């Protein structure tokens, strides 16, 4: 008989995080799914027929205080924002680099079985684009971290979907354009295709070891 797994999601209320939560709650391989969130999860976001879900409201600025939750089989980090929403380069880096990096450190300290996070297509620490630069620096920092088994970054292109309380007209327009250009995005350009959140969620799950 297969051993059931425990999972932790950070950022379960986001576009990918919501889809990932739905997938894990219906995945027979998991017996428990803990979510660290800024505010209570709305019941409309999930269907939990087997009572697996354990939401915990936390302060991400004090993530070390919740390190006990990181001793699970699989950790999924869906934390992320945009430069516009963050309001400054410093605030953006705090969310997209510092929060995720601390989560990886806690995963290592608590000997989590696997750590998967969302990066971005084109992530490169040498990029002139600040967003892609930070994503690349984070990849380097986590992948060079010793004693963190099964760490993996998922690199989606522009996401297709409506974000609650977060209008992103430029991103939506880009997604529509990339969908139209999809037949032309082949070979090395394939990574820039617009993707659905459920595709990213399934890719994250695929990277975990069962």
Automatic annotation (TrEMBL):
Annotated ranges, domain NAD-dependent epimerase/dehydratase: 7-122
Keyword annotations from UniProtKB, A to Z: Membrane
Keyword set includes Membrane: yes
Keyword Membrane: yes
UniProt cross-references to SUPFAM superfamilies, sorted A to Z: NAD(P)-binding Rossmann-fold domains (SSF51735)
Subcellular location as annotated: Membrane
InterPro entries from the UniProt entry: Epimerase_deHydtase, NAD(P)-bd_dom_sf
Primary subcellular site in the record, as a coarse category: membrane
Name used for this protein in its record: NAD(P)H-binding protein
Species assigned in the record: Alteromonas gilva
Organism taxonomic ancestry: Bacteria, Pseudomonadati, Pseudomonadota, Gammaproteobacteria, Alteromonadales
């Amino acid at each position: 008989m297969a051993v059931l797994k425990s999972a932790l999601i950070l950022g379960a209320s986001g576009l990918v995080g919501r889809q990932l939560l739905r997938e894990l709650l219906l995945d027979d391989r998991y017996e428990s799914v803990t979510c660290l969130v800024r505010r209570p999860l709305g019941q409309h976001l999930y269907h939990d027929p087997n009572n697996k879900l354990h939401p915990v409201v936390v302060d991400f600025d004090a993530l070390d205080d919740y390190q006990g939750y990181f001793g699970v089989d699989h950790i999924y980090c869906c934390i992320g924002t945009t430069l516009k929403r963050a309001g400054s380069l410093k605030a953006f880096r705090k969310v997209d680099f510092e929060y995720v990096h601390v989560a990886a450190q806690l995963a290592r300290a608590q000997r989590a079985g696997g750590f998967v996070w969302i990066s971005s297509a084109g992530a490169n620490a040498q990029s002139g684009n600040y967003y892609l630069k930070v994503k690349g620096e984070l990849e380097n920092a986590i992948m060079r971290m010793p004693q963190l088994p099964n760490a993996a970054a998922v690199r989606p292109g522009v996401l297709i979907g409506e974000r609650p309380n977060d209008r992103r007209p430029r991103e939506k327009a880009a997604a529509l354009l990339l969908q139209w250009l999809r037949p032309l995005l082949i070979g090395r350009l394939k990574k820039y295709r617009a993707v659905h959140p459920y595709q990213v969620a399934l890719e994250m799950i695929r990277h975990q070891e069962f």
